[in-house]
Design goal:
Strand content of chain A: 15-25%
Number of strands of chain B: 4
Radius of gyration of chain B: 11 Å
CATH class of chain B: Alpha Beta
CATH architecture of the domain at 5-54 and 99-155 in chain A: 3-Layer(aba) Sandwich
Largest sheet of chain B: 4 strands, mixed
Largest sheet of chain A: 5 strands, parallel
Radius of gyration of chain A: 17 Å
Oligomer: heterodimer
Strand order of the largest sheet of chain A: 4-3-2-1-5
Number of helices of chain A: 6
């Protein structure tokens, strides 16, 4: 049987949206899939050496469960984002959910190919040295070369 | 049931029990049996799906006091 393949586009850089690509990629790899994740736009934040700037915001996120009902005008106060992120990370730890760093390490260990969008780096004038080693830099055509042959292809 | 290796994934959530099962099986020989304990109730269906898709055999699944015990035979 030919090896199954999965490709994911990771376009979001918030803590909540960081989980689906890494969870699915690491699991698919464990099931024997060959996996690639293409990180573009805000998704590129998930490839930084330092993941501490990956946060979650209650703003414009009405589905986020809050310990107490919080009006939008309160959510915009300084420090609310840090607080929400801290609480989310505590919840993640308490429930035995892997940290982002741990999941990313598991993906790398399982040979998931991580591709960073070159255009995004140029657009936002990012410094490539701030990103982890072992990733590849590429564009849409490079992604399509692999995506066109996959069994599962997702946009997150 | 006899087993060759065991590990405890209690307290870990999806997908960690699966990822750790995969790792544990990696250095085992064909036909050997792995015993795994998990408390994530989602692991019951996930472990069966893992076995179905990887060709390893899930010999049994039992539950006691909120903990699930799996025996997986390596392909």
């Amino acid at each position: 049987m030919a090896t199954k393949k999965m490709a994911i586009i990771a376009s979001k850089g918030t803590l909540d949206m960081a989980y689906p690509p890494f969870i699915l990629a690491s699991t698919a790899a464990a099931l024997g899939y060959e996996v690639q994740i293409f990180f573009t736009f805000y998704g590129l934040q998930l490839l930084r050496k330092d993941l501490s700037s990956v946060m979650i915001s209650p703003l414009a996120n009405p589905a986020m469960p809050m310990p107490v009902p919080m009006p939008v005008l309160v959510q915009i106060l300084p420090g609310m984002e840090s607080m929400a992120t801290m609480m989310m990370k505590q919840k993640i730890k308490k429930h035995g959910v892997a940290s982002l760093q741990e999941l990313r390490d598991l993906c790398i260990e399982a040979d998931v190919k991580l591709i960073a969008c070159q255009m995004t780096v140029d657009l936002f004038e990012f410094d490539k040295s701030e990103f982890i080693d072992g990733i590849e830099w590429g564009g849409a055509a490079m992604f399509m070369g692999f995506a066109g042959e996959t069994d599962v292809c997702l946009f997150v | 049931m006899n087993f060759d290796k065991e590990f405890d994934a209690s307290g870990l959530s999806c997908p960690l029990p699966i990822l750790k099962t995969k790792k544990a099986l990696a250095d085992m020989a064909s036909g050997q049996v792995l015993k795994l304990v998990a408390t994530d109730c989602g692991a019951v269906k996930d472990m069966q799906a893992f076995a179905d898709q990887t060709g390893n055999t899930l010999l049994s699944t039992t539950e006691a006091n909120g903990a699930y015990t799996f025996f997986m035979k390596k392909k």
